[in-house]
Amino acid sequence: MLPSFQHIEEEWEAALDWDERYAFLIGLGRQLPPMEPALKTPATRVPGCSANVWVYPVPKDGQLGFQADSDAAITKGIVALVVAMADGKTPAEVLKTDFEGAIERLGLRQHLSSNRTQGLPNMISRVREAARRLAA
Questions:
Q1: Is the pTM of this model over 0.85?
Q2: Smaller CB count within 10 Å for the chain: N or C?
Q3: How many domains does the chain have?
């Protein structure tokens, strides 16, 4: 189970340097529940990422949950971060979530390679897409 984004933000701020933040991000990725291998398909793969990333929405009782994975440790942490911002929210709440602002507050974009930052908007888009489909 992923921690809340508020908890993630608190831990992030408590980190002494970027080495600790990267380690935290990798640890966050390890907290993702295992994704069913059958769900790792071209349809669930997030385009534009340098590593393979998969995101699959799992709606339950009007709220969104996600199965997600990546074959790269830092990228898996990034997708876990995005999923944590949406996990357990209603589709309407997800659509109101300022993913970009939250990522900006963390200062993450300035410390990631351009390959990793190119895929981030697509991860966010995939989560919003799932929320729009469920809201309709």
A1: yes
A2: C
A3: 1
CATH of the domain at 30: 3.90.1010.10
Question: At a CB cut-off of 8 Å and minimum separation 6, what does 76 contact?
Answer: 26, 29, 30, 32, 53, 69, 70
Task: Indicate which residue of 2, 8, 32, 49 is catalytic.
Answer: 49
Structural domain that includes position 116 = 5-135
pLDDT at residue 68 in the model: 97
Q: Is residue 114 predicted with pLDDT exceeding 70?
A: no
Distance CA 20, CA 2 (A): 18
Mark whether 50 is an active-site residue.
Answer: no
Structure tokens at 45: 């793969």
